[in-house]
Write a structure and sequence with these properties.
With 839 residues, the chain is an all-beta fold. Among the domains are: 157 residues, Jelly Rolls, CATH 2.60.120; 111 residues, no CATH class; 183 residues, no CATH class. The strands form 19 sheets. A six-stranded antiparallel beta sheet has the order 28-29-30-27-25-32, with no helix packed on it. Strands 1, 64, 67, 68 and 71 form a five-stranded antiparallel beta sheet that branches. Strand 42 and strand 43 form a beta hairpin. The protein is globular, with a radius of gyration of 33 Å. It starts with 5 loop residues before the first strand and ends in a 9-residue tail after the last strand.
């Protein structure tokens, strides 16, 4: 009816975006589009947090948290990334101490928009003691280093700095902090981070994956932790294990040969039908013992007062197993520093931190000793002094266990331990002289009932029923295999395997546990394995044959359900249930309202194509969000490097509000992880020399306005409302006033750039204006009464669009180091015209 203004009230409408609804039937709580906005716990629209560089030279194949427990039972988590080798996250720490007479001092490390670089600022009282530019760090040829900052601080009166870790780390990578206060005698610790290569047997244990990294079909690495060991698969390399000390091939092989022969001259053994067995045993840094398959000697021997030479093949250098080794160079008595070589005068291969295994004449036994340090021709060991013989073998706890039967009238059925000798990786075989009487033999051999082959080369790893699961074997892409209960490194072949095929014939693309079942994904199908894998009492069921998982690293277990990415959009399932849309559309559980994002046109350029197989997901438990990075890629014409470009998107599902968000400007092509309470995005980018750049970016968390920058760039946030037409799309209205509400605290003043679009015509704003939110200076309060007004709860602005059938509001903000807070808004509308079809 004419003559009375009406109000469109939008107080609870920030629930992400919707790509399925039409403009005429658009749910008012969803945005038609948005970018780089977030939703705070009470539902207000805010900016996403920015990022700053924190480390460089990560591995481009993926990053994982290894939740290790040390030998004392203490948690000792490590962050690792996978490149040609495995790298560990380390910190450069600078302890800054103030010893002056001022009552208070402060330390800040922040990005300065005026000089476009990071700065370290030290103040004592009201005096600035240091205002040092730190540069940008990223892509700088000669960055300002942490050591240079230490020297600058040491040069000040009343201030000192001590530094640990790599001193050459760019100081711009220091974790930001604002006005950290301290009094005389107190210290503040700031830190930057860097990646350090872990010890490994092979120079490049993941060389196959790195060689494939620029291929259009390459996939990121997969990792799973079990029995305090991290296992890594790439589909291009053998499965590797990282035990907290060293990276090497998982499992142990079967001895290539085992032979026995009577030794010349008299000896100690008399008997019939002596047969030997041998196997390799590796004891890792966590005390896990991995035993291989047995080899058997032939023929049986019947010595008469003789000794027996047993010749066994060694595990040799180049196999990828833990073959670190040294040969004693000359007999040495009562020493803790042992002279060693490789048996031919060359270099040994033991490393600091290895557990040396060798024979000690003082204790008359084989012993284990930690290697404290190594030199070109020496090793220093922990513990009491030892006496070693010339040419004695010292291994990195890789042993050859020899077994022999007691005298037998027929072919033996029981074997007993003779000795555990160190593996000599520098020789094809070694000879052990057996002079042990039957009565002195050791423990009985329990012959394994199952095969103990090493893990097969596979693309994906997970853990289910305390077994290591390998999916999509390279030799059999539709096979899922699982380890024996005795060890995650025993893979009985062909018993612990199952072929799972689809009608389309596509290979397995992901594996994941989900409550009581193991989910096996194909590109367009989902199967489950349920029952008891250990007892081989299981069944395979097909759940669906029209949807699957496209990216193994998109799978995350969230509150009893698994979230994952299919070819047509994000999905969720619980146990053996039918997958449903993540953020369903209009009550249709099978569809997600952002599915159209993945239905790309064939005309989309190569650089805008979503590379779904390399998607990476992260569960932000504190924020109750599922982050899904969708890369778009460019191949450098200069270097052929494939890297994630600016078209890449981080899709964010806020499952506490059932809201989908879009964030751009973030490159997480090599993974997203949470470590030390910091969310880290590891990029696959391109540096200024056209080489692959893998900087680790930290999500800001100072709690101040400094958090709202991406490194040196302001964050551009956009929110586009649904079309408002009061249920009458053909009725002319006069939109008079916009009022924006901000009832939450804002860490800064901000300007909200507003646009209005009319009558469903997009990208053609009719009016543009700004509203300022916050309290500046004296505000409106009379001078002398109060300095700085409290924040206004709302601001309003008149609209001058003329008559229109529908309106869409667009809110933007691109101010550096600036957050926004929009709790809701109102539109005052006049409808003075009689209802009629308007043209």
């Amino acid at each position: 009816m004419a003559g009375q203004n009406q109000f469109i009230k939008r107080y609870q409408n920030f629930f992400g975006f919707d790509l399925k609804s039409s403009d005429l039937n658009y749910p008012e709580k969803y945005a038609t589009d948005l970018s780089n906005v977030d939703i705070n716990p009470v539902g207000s629209l805010i900016k996403r947090k920015g990022t700053s560089p924190h480390a460089e030279d990560a591995g481009p194949l993926g990053s994982f948290v290894y939740n290790r427990v040390d030998s004392n039972g203490n948690e000792a988590p490590e962050l690792v990334s996978i490149g040609s080798t495995l790298k560990k996250w380390k910190e450069t720490q600078i302890v800054i101490t103030y010893t002056g007479a001022q009552a208070a001092a402060s330390v800040s490390v922040v990005f300065d928009t005026a000089t476009s670089q990071y700065r370290c600022i030290l103040t004592a009282g009201v005096t600035t003691a240091l205002d040092q530019g730190l540069g940008l760090g990223v892509d700088e040829t000669t960055p300002y280093t942490c050591n240079q900052l230490k020297l600058a601080i040491d040069a000040l009166p009343d201030w000192t700095a001590t530094i640990t870790g790599t001193t050459g780390t760019p100081a711009a990578y220091i974790k930001n902090l604002t006005d950290e206060t301290l009094v005389s005698g107190e210290s503040v610790t700031v830190n930057a981070a860097y990646w350090e290569a872990a010890k490994s047997i092979a120079t490049s244990p993941f060389a196959g994956a790195i060689a494939d990294i620029n291929a259009v079909d390459f996939e990121l690495a997969s990792a799973a932790q079990i029995q305090n060991v991290l296992y890594i698969a790439t589909g291009k390399d053998e499965v590797q294990k990282y035990d907290g000390h060293k990276v090497y091939r998982a499992g142990v092989p079967t001895p290539a040969s085992l032979a026995s022969a009577l030794a010349a001259g008299p000896g100690a053994i008399t008997g019939n039908n002596y047969v030997y067995k041998a196997r390799y045993v590796q004891v890792d840094a966590n005390g896990n013992l991995t035993e291989g398959n047995l080899a058997t000697s032939d023929p049986a021997l019947s010595p008469a007062a003789q000794n027996i030479n047993v010749t066994v093949a060694n595990v040799q250098v180049g196999t990828g197993f833990n073959t670190s080794c040294a040969i004693v160079a000359g007999a040495q008595a009562a020493v803790t520093v042992i002279n060693v070589d490789n048996g031919a005068g060359g270099a040994h291969t033991l490393q600091a931190g290895d557990t040396a295994y060798f024979y000690d004449s003082i204790s008359a036994a084989y012993v284990e000793r930690e290697v404290l340090s190594v030199g070109a021709n020496t090793i220093s060991i922990a513990g009491a002094a030892v006496t070693v013989a010339d040419n004695a073998v010292i291994s990195a706890n890789l042993r050859i266990v020899l077994y022999r039967n007691e005298t037998s009238a027929t072919y033996p059925t029981l074997w007993f331990e003779v000795a555990q000798i160190p593996n000599n990786s520098f020789a094809a075989t070694q000879v052990y002289l057996d002079s042990m009487l039957d009565a002195a033999l050791g423990v009985e051999l329990l012959v394994p009932l199952v095969d103990r082959s090493p893990p097969p080369k596979a693309r994906y790893l997970t853990v289910f029923q305390n077994l290591l699961i390998a999916g999509s074997l390279v030799s059999a892409p539709n096979v899922v295999a699982w380890s024996d209960i005795d060890s995650p490194e025993y893979f009985p072949t062909p018993d612990n395997q199952q072929i799972i095929q689809t009608l389309e014939g596509d290979r397995i693309t992901a594996v994941s546990p989900s409550n009581e079942v193991l989910i096996v994904f194909h590109r367009s199908a989902v199967h489950t394995l349920s029952g008891d894998l250990v007892e081989a009492n299981y069944r395979v069921d097909q759940i669906t044959n029209d949807i699957g998982c496209i990216a193994h690293q998109s799978i995350r277990d969230i509150r009893g359900a698994i979230f994952f990415l299919s070819e047509i959009g994000p999905r969720m399932m619980t146990g053996a249930s039918i997958p449903v849309g993540l953020g369903d559309f209009d009550g249709n559980k099978l569809i997600s309202r952002i599915d159209p994002y993945f239905a790309q046109s064939p005309t989309v350029s190569d650089e805008e194509t979503n590379r779904l197989t390399r998607a990476w997901a992260f569960h932000d438990r504190k924020a109750q969000k599922y982050l899904l990075f969708i890369p778009c890629e460019t191949v450098s014409t200069a270097s052929s490097v494939r890297y994630c470009n600016e078209n890449s998107t981080l899709l964010v599902y806020d499952y506490s509000r059932d809201a989908w968000l879009k964030w751009d400007g973030i490159n997480a092509g090599a993974g997203i992880v949470l470590f030390n309470d910091d969310v880290l995005y590891i990029e696959r980018g391109l540096d200024e020399l056209d080489a692959l750049r893998t900087v680790s970016w930290r999500r800001q968390g100072t709690g101040t306005a400094y958090d709202y920058n991406d490194h040196a760039s302001a964050i551009s946030s956009v929110y586009k409302s649904p079309w408002d037409f009061m249920g009458e799309a053909s009725l002319l209205k006069n939109y008079l006033v916009l009022r924006v509400f901000t009832t939450d605290l804002v860490p800064n003043n901000f300007s909200l750039d507003c646009e209005t679009e009319l009558n469903f015509v997009v990208d053609s704003p009719v009016s543009q204006f700004s509203v300022s939110v916050g309290a500046d200076g004296y505000g409106v309060t009379p001078y002398g009464s109060f300095y700085g007004d409290p924040q206004n709860s709302s601001v309003k602005h008149k609209l001058s669009n003329g008559r229109a059938k529908a309106i869409r509001l667009i809110f933007r903000n691109s101010e550096p180091q600036t957050d926004i807070v929009v709790t809701g808004y109102e539109l005052e509308v006049a409808t003075p015209y009689k209802p009629a079809m308007k043209v």
